[in-house]
Amino acid sequence: MGELWPVPDVLAYLAGRWRTERSVRDLASGLEGRFEGITSFDSLADGGLISRESGAFTWQGVTRPAERTLRYLPGSGPGRADVRFADGRPFHGLDLASGHHVADHPCAADLYRGEFTVRGADRWRTVWRVGGPAKDLLLTTDYLRETPDI
């Protein structure tokens, strides 16, 4: 998929609108689903970005609207961010200075391990592996920057 793309300022890099495509695989059952939509990273008044994802999620032939909101707050340096859920709870740190980052998020008995890979000025990917007593999932999301109409 190419070389890594270092990101010196993660908040500046993420700002804007991204076409978002996610595959969701239940590794235990073999079932697969798909999300397609848009993720907008907009400025927060007190610094950082609010990420609003909206689109359609298809699972077992049924398509429903889906959305998610996260906050990306300034981290300890320009290549870093502190990612939080919409209600302010911590989710994970993010350091894209090298173009690659691995983050863990324990959630009850489950562990979410995310791998973030930047492949260029306008594309990046996350791969989350979710494991626990009731979950065995692989979520792969590709982001492609939308360019404004001229």
Report on this structure:
With 150 residues, the protein is mainly beta. It has one helix spanning 10-14, and strands at 16-26, 32-43, 49-59, 62-74, 80-85, 90-95, 100-107, 110-120, 123-131, 136-145. Strands 6-5-4-3-2-1-10-9-8-7 form a 10-stranded antiparallel beta sheet. The longest helix is centred in the first third of the chain and has 5 residues, at 10-14. The mean pLDDT is 95.
Please report which band the strand proportion falls in: under 5%, 5-15%, 15-25%, 25-35%, 35-45% or over 45%. over 45%
- Placed side by side, the strands forming the largest sheet appear as 6-5-4-3-2-1-10-9-8-7
The helix/strand order is HEEEEEEEEEE
* Overall pLDDT confidence: 95
In oligomeric terms, what are we looking at? single chain
Q: Describe the main β-sheet briefly.
A: 10 strands, antiparallel
From the spread of the alpha carbons, the general shape counts as: globular
Low-confidence stretches: none
Category by helix and strand content: mainly beta
Radius of gyration: 15 Å
Annotation, overall tally of beta strands: 10
Between the first and last Cα atoms, what is the distance in angstroms?
29 Å
Number of H- or I-type helical stretches? 1
Q: Tell me roughly what share of residues is in helical segments.
A: under 10%
